[in-house]
């Protein structure tokens, strides 16, 4: 079985092959960068004006070229020679100067007649291994992801080691298009973006805000039952706070700087809540009897993501988290994490997600990325393994995925299409309490530093709503649907009774709308299904006479007639249980 690293090498090789094909067909194009990515690869070009119909031509040329590619030959050159090789390409020259400035070796890789500036990481025999690929789409992308730079043409593609794997992936992509949260969110009128407000800053409509609030309230209710207390913190803070926490040195490039008309002080919008939570803890003295202290926070966070990486609700600049920080003694850590894992298990089951954990540890090649004593890191990494095993939790290793202050136990959920998403996290942090000089008084009267546990369950509600919309293809469970019931009178003669039914549902706090338009019943049903309404109550002459309703589910199943009281009892039970319709998770 091929590893993730093998796939990266294959796709990196495919990006070289695509660039070679582009240059044969469009000699004036200027290649810039072409890395492998999670599900494929891309390459950015300047001076390339093509459309979607050209992708098949490029793909055909790739199949022709690769027959003569027997290997990737490495060559080390000095800066002068590298600039000479890529004269006329300002992008390659910029990269070469960067390598020179860092004192790094400049390496070139050649296959066939194509040579590229590259650090390496390729398959051994392209002509035999590189056969199953597909070019997928075109996009615009700024050079180095900055809006200040020129817009380039990006070509996306994917590659696998077998035709079967490629076919399965392409089928999944087609299904994913139907489930694209950007399409569903627009169709259901849940949120919008505005150029005047700014990229990556979502605006929620009443329906979208309702879903967001219901998700947050469910998490908050679950947390409150376990002794968590909600706090609220400022949207920005002095740079000094982030200098102490370590974010200023390790994370500043992802933070928005804030300026004042009246002060020379340096401020930043907060990218996470943990530094400010330390100050709530530090505001008063604590005894060992006070611990654990559990703070939760749904306040907004902000991160300066690159414009080219923003994508609907999947990657935004403004978001919140179901963030929690627990200050506790060392002997309380196991119980607190077990409690957090149990809550997470319950909430994941509610949404129908299967999951596993990634144990995110240090990158051994780059110790400079991390704060704290390496011996403490060793201890916590081993401790995290023991926690996973004690809870009989499936996990896999993720070297290099740790936070700069602590390893992480990250939950990776699998959606209805088998795609994986990181949601919750648990972290055992010795670093931040020590940097902020947090203390509690122990039994013997000595001052000790608490341990800080970082914990989220759904993570960002923005991203979680994106996952929910795609997981359920917009067919949300009844408790989350903005409009749970549509009352559909067949003709105007039934409007009076339909109105009384509607009022009874409203009185029971059921989200209902009356469709009293002069449209056919078929049109009303179609519109309700397009709006992903869970239930339609059809009312004709028969229902008026018998004071009943006929229920039509979103799936098309029909039941009744029965009394409105029976329907109310059934739907309230479904809402209370947060039930999921299995039909809503099926792929087409």
CATH topology of the largest domain: BirA Bifunctional Protein, domain 2
Domains (count): 3
The major β-sheet equals:
8 strands, mixed
Briefly, what CATH class of the largest domain?
Alpha Beta
CATH superfamily of the largest domain: Bira Bifunctional Protein, Domain 2
Q: What proportion strand?
A: 15-25%
Give the strand line-up of the largest sheet.
Answer: 11-15-18-25-22-21-19-20
Structural class: alpha+beta
Low-confidence stretches: none
The radius of gyration over CA amounts to 28 Å
Domain Aminoacyl-transfer RNA synthetases class-II family profile: 211-477
Main location: cytoplasm
Cofactor: Zn(2+)
InterPro entries: aa-tRNA-synt_IIb (IPR002314), aa-tRNA-synth_II (IPR006195), aa-tRNA-synth_II/BPL/LPL (IPR045864), Anticodon-bd (IPR004154), Anticodon-bd_dom_sf (IPR036621), Thr-tRNA-ligase_IIa (IPR002320), Thr/Ala-tRNA-synth_IIc_edit (IPR018163), ThrRS_anticodon (IPR047246)
Explained architecture:
The protein has 588 residues and is α+β, with helices and mostly antiparallel strands. It folds into three domains: 4-164, Threonyl-trna Synthetase, Chain A, domain 2 (Threonyl-tRNA Synthetase, Chain A, domain 2), CATH 3.30.980; 188-227 and 278-470, BirA Bifunctional Protein, domain 2 (2-Layer Sandwich); 485-585, Anticodon-binding domain (Rossmann fold, 3-Layer(aba) Sandwich), CATH 3.40.50. It has 19 helices and 30 strands. The strands form eight sheets. The chain has an eight-stranded mixed beta sheet, with helices on both faces. Strands 1, 2, 3, 7 and 8 form a five-stranded antiparallel beta sheet that branches. The longest helix is centred in the first third of the chain and has 22 residues, at 4-25. It is globular. It starts with a helix and ends in an 11-residue tail after the last helix. The relative contact order is 0.08. The model has no long low-confidence stretch (mean pLDDT 91).
């Amino acid at each position: 079985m091929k590893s993730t690293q093998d796939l990266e090498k294959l796709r990196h090789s495919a990006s070289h092959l695509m660039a070679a094909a582009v240059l044969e067909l469009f000699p004036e194009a200027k290649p810039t960068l072409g890395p492998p990515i999670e599900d494929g690869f891309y390459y950015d070009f300047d001076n390339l004006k093509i459309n979607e119909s050209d992708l098949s031509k490029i793909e055909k040329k790739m199949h022709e070229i690769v027959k003569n590619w027997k290997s990737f030959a490495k060559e080390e050159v000095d800066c002068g020679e590298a600039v000479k090789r890529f004269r006329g390409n300002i992008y390659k020259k910029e990269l070469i100067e960067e390598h020179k400035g860092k004192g790094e070796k400049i390496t070139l890789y050649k296959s066939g007649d194509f040579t590229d500036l590259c650090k390496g990481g390729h398959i051994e025999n392209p002509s035999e291994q590189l056969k199953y690929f597909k070019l997928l789409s075109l996009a615009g992308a700024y050079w180095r992801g900055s809006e200040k730079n020129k817009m380039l043409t990006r070509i996306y593609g994917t590659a696998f080691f077998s035709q079967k794997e490629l076919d399965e992936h392409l089928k999944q992509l087609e299904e994913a298009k139907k489930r694209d949260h950007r399409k569903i969110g627009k169709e259901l009128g849940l949120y919008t973006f505005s150029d005047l407000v700014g990229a990556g800053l979502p605006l929620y409509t009443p329906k979208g805000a309702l879903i967001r609030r219901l998700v947050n309230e469910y998490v908050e209710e679950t947390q409150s039952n376990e002794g968590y207390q909600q706090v609220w913190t400022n949207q920005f803070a002095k740079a000094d706070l982030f200098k102490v926490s370590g974010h200023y040195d390790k994370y500043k490039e992802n933070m928005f700087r804030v300026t004042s008309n009246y002060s020379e002080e340096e401020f930043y919008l907060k990218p996470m809540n943990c530094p400010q939570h330390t100050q709530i803890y530090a505001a008063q003295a604590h005894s060992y009897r006070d611990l654990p202290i559990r703070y939760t926070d749904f306040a907004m966070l902000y991160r300066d993501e690159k414009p080219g990486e923003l994508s609907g609700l999947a990657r935004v600049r403004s978001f919140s988290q179901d963030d929690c920080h627990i200050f506790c003694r060392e002997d309380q850590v196991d119980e607190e994490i077990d409690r957090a894992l149990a809550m997470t298990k319950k909430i994941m089951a509610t949404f129908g997600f299967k999951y596993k954990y990634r144990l995110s540890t240090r990158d051994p090649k780059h110790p400079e990325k991390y704060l704290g004593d390496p011996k403490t890191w060793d201890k916590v990494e081993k401790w995290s393994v023991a926690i996973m095993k004690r809870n009989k939790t499936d996990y896999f290793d993720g070297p290099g995925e740790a936070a700069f202050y602590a390893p992480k136990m990250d939950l990776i959920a699998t959606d209805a299409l088998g795609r994986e998403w990181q949601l919750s996290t648990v972290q055992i942090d010795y670093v931040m309490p020590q940097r902020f000089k947090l203390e509690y008084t122990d039994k013997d009267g000595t001052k000790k530093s608490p341990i800080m546990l970082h914990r989220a369950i759904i993570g960002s509600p923005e991203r979680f709503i994106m996952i929910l919309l795609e997981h359920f293809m917009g067919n949300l469970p009844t408790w989350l649907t903005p409009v749970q019931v549509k009352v559909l009178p067949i003709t105007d003669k039934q409007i009076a009774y339909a109105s009384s039914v509607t009022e009874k549902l409203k009185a029971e706090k059921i989200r209902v709308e009356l469709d009293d338009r002069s449209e056919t019943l078929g049109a009303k049903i179609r519109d309700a299904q397009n709006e992903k309404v869970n239930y339609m109550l059809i009312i004709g002459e028969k229902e008026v006479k018998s004071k009943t309703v006929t229920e039509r589910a979103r799936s098309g199943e029909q039941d009744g007639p029965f009394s409105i009281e029976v329907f109310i009892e059934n739907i309230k039970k479904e809402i209370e249980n947060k039930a999921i319709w299995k039909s809503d998770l099926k792929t087409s």
